[in-house]
Write a structure and sequence with these properties.
607 residues; alpha+beta; ten-stranded mixed β-sheet; seven-stranded antiparallel β-sheet; 23 strands
Length: 607
């Protein structure tokens, strides 16, 4: 069943949360500046000046380097929405001037081809021409919304108009090797209401799987069309294939398309491929894509730990896709995946200091895998720079009859529910360490509407109170993963939700060969790991957890920015401490393991 849920802009959400607020401050003070500095020092920004003829010099870097600049600008725009910083805004305006100057008279914009191979434009569908353009469009829409300035948006529209003049029905075929343009055009359509952009996005989706793809991907035998999701028409997709990030961007665009077309074939394809991805090809951390050879998928249940690829960009793309699926179908299982990525797979990609990054996120390491300041291909740092400042948009959704609380982030939000009633909602929580969430509901006047509270899939029990009075079982039943509170609300009403948050022992399906005889540990939404820094007497993969002995929960505000740790003992009685997976590799070098050998008494599942 499809719904008409709407995203609540993060500009309507003020985050005042002990977990996320410090991270957003580090992002504003450190990460965005570090990414801009890297784009400057590596020549990414100078490429635009060179393409514009403002300075002499050759192109620097890889043909998709333009996209990193655009992603950092998008992240900067999101930061400016919540904190207007004149210095940052001036720097962004300077870069925008260079980007606009580099645009060719017909609207084309890709500095690699302008500087290196102007005669080779639109000859190899793997060369990321529209991928770069898609990220420009996303940055342009964000910056216009943040500042009201149109220069970058006008540049993006001229570029999209160029695409539309060259490609489409009766024109040239095109299958972009790396998806992104499809979802970006949908975003440009929503910003401008220009129908041509929506139609071009839908046409590009329909080009896939029809034999039009040409270029390096299609000629490489071990990759082929499936690598970039060009093996079957998108409406016929049955399973996830190929490059993980490209696949997730495709499904995100398909979800956007369903919102405007309602195409039942797309709905069926999305539901099939979601089940195949999440149920057979996703790690406990939310990571996807086990293979470094194709940066993506191999076969069902192939989930190795030490060699897991799990690109940070893929985790972020899972957030984008699952957020849209939640809005489409009103089901909390999609928000569950968003949460798994938020606190594990995506968050692991950035250091606590905000200036070092993982591209690859294995679930085990002998001590030789570490975050670094930058990469030759730096899509992951720049993706984090645009993802993190917008996390507020995943907290709530406006439903047909009220609102849904999807992520329990402390702060305040403003909504308009059915009938035009304005509602302020204040969330107080110590999430993800504590399962108690308090909501202060303040409509501008008394009125009836529904508040849906997500009960996470990991939660086996919960208690609910309104105004201090407990709700009975019949009043607190869930619908598609939500407790639905449909009632007359008055200013000052208070809701208290208490989610049971025991330590849980997780076992993989028997088909996952890498995890046979092993266990993972999760508490609430947080997946844990053993790191050598906490366990100097243990050796990598040479110990087993005694699950019959309870793991004790202890808050450590002095450790790793403030975490809850778990302490227990190994099968031979040695002490063992576990920390959140996202926080590993922030101290001295050493091993790390998520899936740990299990001692020989697997009778206890939960404790």
């Amino acid at each position: 069943m499809m719904t008409n849920w709407q995203s609540v802009p993060f500009t309507n959400v003020k985050i005042d949360d002990a977990f996320w607020r410090p991270r957003l401050e580090v992002l504003r003070k450190v990460t965005i500046k570090a990414c801009l500095a890297q784009c400057e020092s590596t020549g990414r920004i100078a490429n635009f000046a060179k393409a514009a003829g403002l300075v002499e010099g050759e192109f620097e870097g890889i043909y998709f380097n333009d996209s990193d600049v655009y992603k950092v600008l998008e992240g900067a725009a999101y930061l400016l929405m919540s904190h207007r910083d004149p210095e940052l805004e001036a720097e962004v305006d300077r870069i925008i001037d260079l980007i606009a100057a580099a645009q060719e008279p017909d609207g084309y914009l890709c500095t690699y081809f302008t500087l290196v191979a102007p005669e080779s434009k639109w000859t190899d569908m793997e060369k990321h021409e529209m991928y770069n353009g898609g990220h420009l469009i996303e940055a342009a829409v964000a910056y216009h919304e943040a500042t009201g300035k149109r220069k970058l948006l006008d540049t993006a529209c001229r570029l999209a108009d160029h695409y539309d003049s060259v490609f489409g029905p009766g024109k040239r075929h095109w299958v972009e090797g790396h998806e992104e343009i499809e979802l970006a055009l949908m975003k440009l359509y929503r910003a401008t209401r220009e129908e041509r952009y929506r139609k071009l996005a839908l046409w590009l989706l329909e080009e896939r799987g029809r034999g039009h793809g040409k270029g390096a991907i299609w000629d490489k035998e071990e990759w082929g069309p499936a690598y970039c999701q060009d093996d079957v028409p998108v409406r016929n997709i049955e399973k996830v294939t190929g490059h993980a990030v490209r696949a997730m961007y495709l499904y995100t665009a398909m979800a956007d398309a369903v919102r405007v077309s309602g195409d039942p074939a797309y709905v069926g394809a999305l539901q099939r491929v979601w089940a195949h991805t999440v149920e057979r090809n996703m790690y406990v951390t939310g990571g996807i894509g086990p293979s470094r050879h194709n940066e993506g998928f191999t076969h069902d249940y192939d989930l190795p730990n030490e060699t897991a690829y799990c690109e940070t960009c893929a985790a972020i793309a899972m957030v984008l896709w699952n957020h849209r699926m939640n809005l489409l179908f009103g089901d909390a299982k999609y928000a569950d995946v968003v949460e798994r990525e938020m606190y594990n797979g995506a968050l692991a990609g950035i250091s606590l200091s905000g200036d070092k990054f993982f591209y690859v996120n294995p679930l085990a390491s002998r001590g030789d895998h570490h975050r670094v300041e930058w990469f030759g291909t730096s899509c992951c740092p720049t993706n984090l720079a645009r993802y993190l400042p917008s996390i507020g948009q995943y907290a709530y959704a406006r439903t047909d009859d009220g609102l849904a609380v999807n992520q329990y982030i402390g702060g305040e939000a403003e909504f308009e529910v059915a009938g035009g009633l304005r509602v302020k909602l204040k969330t107080t929580a110590n999430y993800p360490w504590d399962g108690r969430i308090e909501l202060a509901v303040n409509p501008e006047r008394p009125g009836r509407f529904a508040i849906r509270l997500r009960v996470p899939g990991w939660c086996k029990g919960y208690k609910l109170k309104i105004g201090g009075e407990s709700l009975g079982e019949a009043e607190a039943l869930t619908d598609r993963g939500y407790v639905v509170l449909d009632r007359e609300w008055s200013p000052g009403d208070a809701v208290a939700l208490e989610l049971e948050m025991p330590v849980e022992i997780v076992r993989a399906r028997a088909e996952v060969e890498a995890d046979r005889g092993r266990i993972a540990v999760q508490r609430g939404p947080v997946v844990y790991c053993a790191e050598q820094a906490d366990n100097p007497d243990l050796a990598y993969d040479a110990f087993a957890l005694a699950v019959r002995e309870p793991l004790l929960v202890r808050d450590r505000p002095d450790l790793l920015g403030g975490v809850t740790v778990l302490t227990g003992q190994t099968a031979d009685g040695k002490p063992c401490r576990l920390i959140p997976y996202y926080a590993w590799d922030n101290r001295e070098e050493g091993f790390m393991q998520v899936w740990i050998r299990e001692a020989s008494h697997p009778s206890l599942y939960l404790f």
